[in-house]
């Protein structure tokens, strides 16, 4: 075997990957972040190099790209591009959400699938990794247009799905309504009831109680467990939560319940700030019921202010920062603002919301980081609970689901803390998460010979 050092080996693998995938910046960023943390693992486990685990892990098992044709309300034919990446099935059936957003492309889908591989492994549940979506923008579309698009999308994808093969869920632009339309189309095409084929369904058609809250609640449970190790708690802390979607809203709700104060949240246009605390109920009414810009929050809450430019939210002071909007929303410059304002914890509610430069800045400053692949694993955790309920034709109570979610998030924190200590990077949870996720998938691949 080559005497090439682990770091040189990883650099050579990355260089080859970058040459083959020059335009896939998000995917390369995700891989680069993981590679920085695996040197010690490869030094201690030569079998991973012998079996070329990393090279195999970087290539999706299957990448589907397809045309989606649908009719708008004016009977015009519209064309979008659909995607599904079945990244790795060593631990179980492919599992991961569908994102409907104009930003979706091959790079974004592959980065999400790569991150999902580690996230799903961290849950300790028997699931592999997939991700998908389309460059379709549901904003401004009628319910009928969204339904027709979902039906057209499923027409191209359904043959590749199955409860023991590939189980999609929701993501940005895909909520319970879209999942319902997708499931209805699948049932018609397949000709049978297979409730476990999609998760995040409305509860009336097999969805799990607690799924809507899972990612946001799970994020806060993760942060709470992190803080226990330092004798801290969320009560009395000031928190900034970017975004105002499903994850953000339920994170704010749980923070409020635990006695913390959310002082700022945002949408794509700007952010609101209130030192006395943001009302999750009002934000939910504005964004989910009325579908308005978050700026109207100040009409009801006079102590709040609105600032255009959502990226400026990180210039405010807080104890805990929870980026929950989208990838690369928090860069190195924003990280320095937070550090100067004495932030103590940063936990990622979105997928890869912090740039690598921001992560390096936080690490250098000794800020505790909850990496997205661990901190936002609550959504996929309850998705698997939904699969289990569908398979057994049972329904768990909200309390049962929530208790199991808390147990899983607590276990994830303990596992990655232990791995970080074992591999010489104590306290660096992003490294611990990468190590645990990588080893679980790698060991399974070796045992399976795949």
From TrEMBL:
Gene Ontology biological process terms, A to Z: glutamate biosynthetic process
SMART domains: ELFV_dehydrog
Keyword Oxidoreductase (UniProt): yes
Pfam families (alphabetical): ELFV_dehydrog, ELFV_dehydrog_N
Stretches assigned to the Glutamate/phenylalanine/leucine/valine/L-tryptophan dehydrogenase C-terminal domain: 208-449
GO molecular function terms noted in the UniProt entry: glutamate dehydrogenase (NADP+) activity; nucleotide binding
Binding site for substrate: 95, 116, 119, 170, 383
Residues that bind NAD(+): 215, 246
Record-annotated active site: 131 (proton donor)
Coiled coil stretches, renumbered: none
Matches recorded under InterPro entries: Aminoacid_DH-like_N_sf, Glu/Leu/Phe/Val/Trp_DH, Glu/Leu/Phe/Val/Trp_DH_C, Glu/Leu/Phe/Val/Trp_DH_dimer, Glu_DH, Glu_Leu_Phe_Val_DH, NAD(P)-bd_dom_sf
Domain of life, source organism: Bacteria
Record-level GO cellular component terms: cytosol
Site positions (Important for catalysis): 171
TM region positions: none
Keyword entries, A-Z: NAD, Nucleotide-binding, Oxidoreductase
Family stated for the protein in its record: Belongs to the Glu/Leu/Phe/Val dehydrogenases family.
Subunit: Homohexamer.
Protein name: Glutamate dehydrogenase
